[in-house]
Amino acid sequence: MAGGVLNTFGKFSVPAFTPVWLNISFIVAALFFADYFSQPIFVLAWAVFFGGILQLSFQIPFLKKIGCLPSLDFNFNDPGVWRVVKLMGPSILGVSVAQISLLINTVFASFLAVGSVSWLYYADRLIEFPAGVLGVALSTVLLPSLSRSLANNKKSEYSSLINWGIKLGILTAAPASAALVILSIPLITTLFFYGGLIGLIQIKIIAPAFYAQQNVKTPVKIAIFTLFCTQFMNLIFIGIFQHAGLALAIGLGACINAGLLFFFLQKSNLFKLDPNIFKFITKVLVSASVMSAVLFYFKGSTEDWLNYSAASRVGNLLFLIFVGMVVYFLSLKCCGIKLTKFLKKNHNY
């Protein structure tokens, strides 16, 4: 809640840094207090508790600075409280369908070959890294901005913000997806090869467009439909690809979710798609393809990576990341995409 208030006032850095305190709590608890428990794993549960206190305590001075430090009030008839409660429940379901699908898929994977559950877990960790860094950051910035635009009846600004978010999401997710395909082992990359990462990031961009309208019904209906689609695809893919089919279903489900959100958003009178979006996407895909070709040439064989020392793996991976970034951004420049335009208010690309 504190993070939401700070984001509304444009204080994005404070909520973004706040989770660090939970990580610090985990590290300190594991290093210095695990021996005090009969079952050391319990120390991590207490780390969550104290980490939460640290996170809230860190944000309180910043809330006070902007004059939004709340006072306890148990007036349960407050209309604002009930408005938040009614919007919050469906919103949680709307944005968590991928996690629910992963939970169900974990149950399916437990009946497959040994290691399938671990395979899904590590695949999820890989996809959540770029999705969290890119998608969550965009979603956090967009929601208060979109809400402010609608409150001020600035429909053109609302539409421009969404177009900006969609383009920036594609601009960052496309090379991330391509790089994960080229640089990951074949089984793990199955999840990303079919576009799941782009779908997950677009959900985090487009869903706030509905929440800014206080429209939670549409994203929730789409999320429930996507959940059923994902489980249906599970039944089809699990017999063909085993555990990789479960991951593939989540990726395709994310694309269905994002596609339906975009379809219904475009039907509203509030949003108008940038007519140059398909030209923009083509340029991004060309640039990502050039980067992919270069990475494929330099990445070497799987046997080489298995035989590398730890230092060699780190060095070679950093080299590939650097080369990929340089090639991608140079390709974007050659295609006429000016990255500095994304930082300007008029969003004229």
Written description of the protein model:
The protein has about 350 residues and is mainly alpha-helical. The protein folds into three domains: about 1-65, no CATH class; about 95-275, no CATH class; about 275-349, no CATH class. It is about 80% helix and about 0% strand. It is built from 15 helices and no strands. α7 runs antiparallel to α8 (about 155-185) and α7 (about 115-150) runs parallel beside α9 (about 185-195). The radius of gyration is 22 Å and the shape is globular. The two termini are about 35 Å apart.
Features:
single chain, 349 residues, 3 domains, mainly alpha
Secondary structure topology:
Layout: H1 2-8, H2 13-17, H3 19-32, H4 42-65, H5 79-95, H6 97-109, H7 116-151, H8 155-183, H9 186-193, H10 196-211, H11 217-241, H12 243-267, H13 277-298, H14 302-307, H15 310-334
Helix pairs in contact: 1-4, 3-4, 5-10, 5-11, 6-7, 6-11, 6-12, 7-8, 7-9, 7-10, 7-12, 8-9, 8-10, 8-13, 9-12, 10-12, 11-12, 13-15
